[in-house]
Design a protein that fits this description.
Number of strands: 0
CATH superfamily of the largest domain: MFS general substrate transporter like domains
Number of domains: 2
Shape: globular
Order of helices and strands: HHHHHHHHHHHHHHHHHH
């Protein structure tokens, strides 16, 4: 096995482990808050929403900083640092005594992790340029696999042990093992810029500002942001929408879970395949196909009348959704030299986390005011607008990287 291949598969595993750590508390977080003494139920819902979203918000704010530091001191070093931070703060969640402490620890976890940008930059600088889409597709698969397994494992272990604190401690241990594995088995070969040692390097925020003005990076920032908003915008309404389709059937929870799972399963299948395809036929073409596909499968969900049609449409969304983020990341990476990719993917991570923060808020707000149908129409229209944005405003040509 070649060095870049070994690095890729190791980082896919680390990516999945970190994603599990972020998502494992999702199914039992409200129950844990009740155990911490939060009452009544509206307060539990408020705290659960705040604690779930603060991690994404803080990650969005600081990702460019961690990405820039990855370019300066090495991507592997930043992956290890962020993995260790996830392990530490996950363990701290197991010892908190009230909701405010849990909120603070989750905020710190988002502030000090910065994992996604560093891991993406590390892989993007190790793999051959003609395997960039393929490799980042597998990285997206690792992240999604963790997002699927995290809540499942958290729910299963919580039901079996009824000890939420031990789940945090166990997750922390595996995150630490992932950090150790990266330390021992990933070889980066990073060389520091001599300008840094001579004190001649441009200030980090100046470099980030120069990148923001790149003629293609800002349009792609919008693409990634809107894609995440659309991907997560309907999540808050899916369980209630499924109930409107099946009534109070005894298998209601199973149907709602299947509606989530089929999207993730399709995404899991499609991400590496579409990523590989983008290396052959072009990033822009695959991105346009993916955006159009998600829009075409989202809009009809507003008018579906049975659960099987809804599940089929959700599977279709997942098949095309799996091509957006890895293809966009590969396209963005191709625009910049390796020594700038930490900063670049830091900015892209900010767009990703902002979308993850804003999407559920938008979907829940639209549903509460205008109903379920409006949510699907708004989210589908956003994805259609994203398609038109790429088609009309993201240029074909590759511009020179910022110096």
């Amino acid at each position: 096995m070649r060095d870049w291949q070994r690095t890729l598969w190791l980082m896919v595993g680390v990516q999945a482990t970190m994603s599990i750590a972020f998502q494992i508390s999702a199914p039992f977080l409200p129950l844990f808050l009740i155990q911490l003494g939060v009452h009544p139920l509206p307060s539990v819902e408020l705290w659960a929403g705040a604690i779930s979203s603060v991690n994404f918000l803080m990650s969005a704010l600081v990702s460019p900083l961690w990405g820039g530091l990855a370019d300066r001191i090495g991507r592997k070093a930043m992956v290890i640092r962020s993995s260790a931070a996830v392990a530490l703060f996950t363990a701290m969640m197991g010892i908190v005594q009230n909701a405010a402490q849990l909120f603070g620890v989750r905020a710190l976890m988002g502030t000090f992790s910065g994992f996604s940008a560093s891991a993406t930059a590390l892989v993007a600088t190790k793999v051959p340029e003609d395997r960039l889409g393929f490799s980042l597709g597998w990285m997206a698969t690792g992240q999604l696999l963790g997002a699927l397994l995290g809540p499942m494992l958290g729910g299963l272990v919580a039901d079996r042990t009824h000890d939420y604190r031990h789940i945090f401690f166990g997750t922390s241990f595996f995150a630490f093992v992932a950090a150790l594995g990266c330390t021992l088995f990933v070889h980066e070969g990073f060389r520091r810029d001599t300008a840094r040692t001579k004190g001649l390097r441009t200030p980090l925020w100046t470099e980030i500002g120069e990148l923001i003005r790149h003629p293609q990076l800002l349009p792609m920032f919008v693409v990634v942001l809107l894609a995440q908003v659309a991907a997560l915008g309907i999540q808050p309404v899916v369980p209630l929408y499924v109930r409107s389709l099946v009534g109070n059937a005894p298998w209601l929870a199973t149907a709602a879970g299947a509606s989530f799972a089929v999207t993730g399963l399709a995404d899991l299948i499609a991400s590496p395949l579409l990523g590989k395809r983008s290396d052959r036929i072009g990033y822009r073409r695959v991105l346009l196909i993916s955006l159009a596909g998600v829009a075409c499968f989202t809009l009809p969900q507003a008018f579906v009348h049975n659960i099987w049609g809804f599940i089929a449409l959700r599977f279709g969304v997942g098949m095309f959704l799996g091509g957006i983020l890895p293809t966009a990341n590969a396209w963005i990476g191709s625009l910049f030299p390796g020594e700038q990719r930490g900063r670049v993917y830091g900015l892209v991570s900010s767009a990703t986390f902002l979308g993850m923060f804003a999407g559920p808020l938008l979907g829940g707000s639209v549903a509460s005011r205008f109903g379920f149908t409006a949510t699907f129409l708004v989210v589908g229209s956003l994805m259609l607008a994203n398609f038109l944005w790429v088609a009309l405003f993201v240029p074909h040509s590759r511009h020179a990287a910022v110096s």
